[in-house]
Amino acid sequence: MPKLWEATIEAHRREVRDAILDTTVALVNAHGLLSVTMSQVAEQTGIGRATLYKYFADVEAILLAWHERNITTHLEHLGRLARQTGSSPWARLVAVLEAYALIRQQHTHDGELAAPVHRPANLARPQQRVVEFVRPLIAAAAKAGEACDDVAADELAQYCVHALGAAAGLRSKAAVRRLIPVVLAGLRPEAAASNR
């Protein structure tokens, strides 16, 4: 198969898949999770039911794919923040942790969409990816004297990600912004010295 044709088919499949995801989310937001059917999704997307079933088995599978797409987008954003050039390791660390906390807070309050997708099993892998972004930033900040160096970077990264996971239970961005400095304070060299 010619590469141009293959690329065109793949682009079409992505467009159809994205349309299915977006339509399903709109239907759930408008009518509630339990009232959305695969027939409605097919009709609103403008595709046949047989085509829809080639992509997804049921509405929950669609919502899980929507969740995965969101996670991928968020991880790409966090990765860009982690790789910012011209910023100190501490500034990049703060940017990643703030963005992560705000993402957790925002998407926990997605209404009915949150129930089937925000299960611990669906969050474990993305949280581990965030730890992987944060770990080298903490190590670099410690090397620059901006973060404590007497606790392993991996342990501190786990601490940050899990502590900022509490943002999921907060109702406002202001509350999240108050939580972030508390978590960051635990990373500073002064905090480590005062605990001795």
Task: Please provide a brief summary of the model.
The chain has helices at 3-31, 38-45, 49-55, 59-82, 89-108, 114-117, 120-143, 153-164, 173-185, 189-194. The chain is mainly α.
What would your notes on this structure say?
This protein has 196 residues and is mostly helical. The chain has two domains: 1-57, Orthogonal Bundle (Arc Repressor Mutant, subunit A); 62-194, Tetracycline Repressor, domain 2 (Orthogonal Bundle). Helix content is 75%, strand content 0%. Helix 4 packs parallel to helix 7 (120-143). The longest helix is centred in the N-terminal third of the chain and has 29 residues, at 3-31. The radius of gyration is 21 Å and the shape is elongated. The mean pLDDT is 87.
Low-confidence stretches: none
- N-C termini distance: 67 Å
Number of helices: 10
CATH class of the largest domain: Mainly Alpha
Based on secondary structure, the structural category is mainly alpha
Overall pLDDT confidence: 87
* CATH architecture call of the largest domain: Orthogonal Bundle
Q: Assign the CATH topology of the largest domain.
A: Tetracycline Repressor, domain 2
Domains, number: 2
Q: What do we call the CATH homologous superfamily of the largest domain?
A: Tetracycline Repressor, domain 2
Proportion of residues in β-strands = under 5%
Give the SSE order as H and E letters: HHHHHHHHHH
How many β strands by DSSP? Answer: 0
- Helix content percent band: over 70%
Radius of gyration: 21 Å
Largest sheet, strands/sense/barrel = none
Shape: elongated
